[in-house]
Structure prediction request, 231 residues.
Amino acid sequence: MDSEDKINYAEILTPGGLPILKEAERHSTIPRKKGQLLSVACGYGELEFYLAERYKCKVFGIDADPNSIDVCLRKAAKRKLAGKTKFFVADAKSIPFRQDTFDMVLCCGGLSIFYDAGIKEFYRVLAPGGQLIIIDTVWRSDQIPPEVVSLWSEKGNFFRTLKGNCKIFQNCGFEMRYCRDHYRPDWWEEYFQFRKLMDDLPDLRRERNHYLAFQDFIGLGLFVLKKSDRT
Prediction:
């Protein structure tokens, strides 16, 4: 069975999921075999298991939610991937690994919560020449109505435009290899539909209503960045 066939799409906790990750694959060099990849805010680990099986690299995942990490550990044992994956409860603002450890860092959703401190930590744990893939919500305009910003900030999210993100990443020392804003309402609808298979919580319905009301302002940013080869 192919690694893609094993994915539980209901447990991918960000819009775009596998399709936007596969675009990231086309514009980056995923580490193989002896390479090490860190996924920050790994959620339930579906994309992480996909990468571990497809590229045979060692995949580490961290998430602040202990329940998510418990789910990842059970899946790793069931899928016989405990030797290729490691998961830890950890804060993205203080990643528990040494400097220059990883060949790649992936952050698929979540950056808008731990933004500045997270970027500095990504840079610290990446080896020279290592790559950073970020997938996160972006504003599609510099002129966003205050009520839209307020609704989408309820959970502590603070979004920026594609250009605004790129400027900050470059100021933090990263080289920009690829960036694109994806305006794909179908990805958001798929995300909400799959999540209903897990739970139909009031928070999910409220988030979907917010999205439907203001979807023209929202895109998904894909960024592929590189840490300088120089130490």
